[in-house]
Amino acid sequence: MLTESERYLKDKKMLRTLSLLANRSRGHQQLYQKLLYSIGSQNVVASRTAASDNPQNLPPLPVPKLNDTIEKYLKTVKPFLDEKEFINTTALFKRFSDTNGVGNKLQEYLLKKAQSTTNWFEPWWLDAAYLGFRKPVVVYSSPGQTLPLQTFKSESERLNYTTRLILAAASYKILIDSKQLPVEKMGKHELDMNQYNKIFGTCRIPDLPKDDIEFNPRSKHIVVAHNNHYFKVNLFNENGRLLSEKQLLQQLNNIIVQSTEPAVSVGILTSDDRDNWAKAYKILMQEEVNQRSVRTIQTSLFLVCLDSPMEYTTEDNRRTSAGKQLIHGGGSNANAGNRWYDKTVQFVLGTDGIVGLTYEHSPSEGGPIAVMVDYIYQFIKKDGSKDIPDGDHDQDPIKLPFKISNDLNTAIATAKTNIDKLVNNFELNCFSFDKYGKDFVKSQKFSPDSFIQIALQYAFYRMHNVPGAHYESAGTRKYLGGRTETIRSCSVESVNFAKAMLDTKINNAEKLAALKAAIQSHKQYTVDAVNGYGVDRHLLGLKLSAKEMGLSVPEIFQDPSFVRSTHMRISTSQVATKCDGFMCYGPIEDDGYGCCYNPRDNDINIAVSAFASNKDTSAKQFRTALENSLVDMETLLIKTQKAKM
Ligand code: COA
């Protein structure tokens, strides 16, 4: 008789073989799926046997040389300084990095830290960027990600789709646990796959002065939210077998029947700023019944939000409406209370066919989320859940009760006011730029990502007439525990290009030369950033080293060069899905833009955001400026090519 561990390994080997064969024959596909759904029970063994801090043998995140960072930094701040300011800044940074300067002491500290930790930056980043960040996660931190939008003509169509989506996500969880995900690569380098392990079962826990994060990867249940009520659904039974489509659909129908009237929206508390929420949380958790319900939500694999109908403004197209529904749920009168924003993944299904998720950013970047979304979409399309056999389930969904005190009611009222203000202040414009996509840019021998980034620079400059400090996320997952580095997309070259395009006296050949220089400069920075040699993470590391050493914050961090070059008026990232989806999020600064894009072969899905309270910015106008910039750049390339012929 085989031991549990031997059986697991045998099944896993068979699973791998079948996964290859599944592409070829329907019979193999069915066998593959059956084995897939039953292997979930054995993932406890998997995680124990594969236990290793560095199973992929990835290199550690490097600490750049101090002088290299300073030199690079000085280059990036030029667009934001006049000549005299630049001379002062150069002198200040040279003093900082002198042999006797404080920079060298901090660098020494950092190098020692790097030797004694698996990733010198990751814990700092988790606290600085996420757990210690006190603004609401809604709009300010948690992105929305759409799946291709659907049309639901009835509640039963929505519930059918929801069932398939839940089972697709469950099957992805099984793939993660059984280590079946293909390892991603950047060039020949493997990427750290550990963020995938944190997608399901993870929850942020509000606290003062900073939040905490909790992982429950072995959880077997999900929570379904409807009309602000929460229900526990056991997705896997004790033996790890998954509910079948029919069984799950029954549970969803049962939930709808049990929650026809809206409940008090406890969940809206999670949309408030983190200090307010942390204080309300303490009150909420005084009651045992609340503790049990909250713990069930926190330890679930993920949330499924069956939303109420939304009112859309006439200005918004469907993509924009979808983005808003995913980011903020439309406020207190719509679906903002039908959430638990601390959960890493909340799938959202609107009555009209808006489908996607909102994700809490702390444990993972957008890349793994996008890969999962492609899988889920394909799984649904191929009807992957219909072969799941009935499991041994006899439990109905369990409604999670709450006891609401007067103090909690006050906190809920405050949270409602705050989310409604935020919703009214948030501008979003989502669209598909369909004139061309990656293929055209590649045919011109340019990097598509750098090309789009330079278009964003040009769009900002043509609208505001000043250089815009510009953040792009670069993934550093080629290193163990790697997260991101900032690509500083605003450069002397990007500003020169924008100016050249707007100057009617400059000819096309010169404009093209300016475009090439701008793209080249961006590409070079990208290469440095993905290799861990940008400037921002290193400088933050030095600043936090000073704090840990009990030293005062070095002068360089108050310098105008630092203040201006880190006031990121354009906050961007590329999150690519093969399916027709996109990610969207809010700006970092009050006078800034958020812009997430998905460059596909022949189109680019783009989401632009801004704050209505700022009179200089407008998501709608930025969209137009960006579309015009992309068209101008295409025209320039076509005209200069024709001129050569
Ligand atoms: N000529 C022709 N083709 C080119 C080219 C050129 N000069 N330069 C690049 N290409 C090709 C590439 O080979 C690649 O081809 P593929 O589609 O067959 O793979 C394609 O164009 C795309 O490359 P490029 O546009 O240069 O960018 P990228 O895909 O390498 O992405 C980053 C760049 C910075 C976005 C990426 O490295 C990264 O870090 N991604 C993670 C971002 C992130 O963290 N986002 C989430 C934040 S929550």
From TrEMBL:
Q: Which Gene Ontology BP terms does the record give?
A: carnitine metabolic process, CoA-linked
Q: Name one GO cellular component term.
A: peroxisome
Q: Which Pfam families match?
A: Carn_acyltransf
Keyword set includes Transferase: yes
All residue ranges annotated as the Choline/carnitine acyltransferase domain in the record: 61-627
Q: Which InterPro entries match?
A: Carn_acyl_trans, CAT-like_dom_sf, Cho/carn_acyl_trans, Cho/carn_acyl_trans_2
Q: Which keywords label this protein? A: Acyltransferase, Transferase
Active site residues per record: H361 (proton acceptor)
Under Gene Ontology molecular function, one entry of this record is: carnitine O-acetyltransferase activity
What family does the Swiss-Prot or TrEMBL record give for this protein?
Belongs to the carnitine/choline acetyltransferase family.
Provide the protein name: Choline/carnitine acyltransferase domain-containing protein
Q: Which species is the source of this protein?
A: Ignelater luminosus (Cucubano)
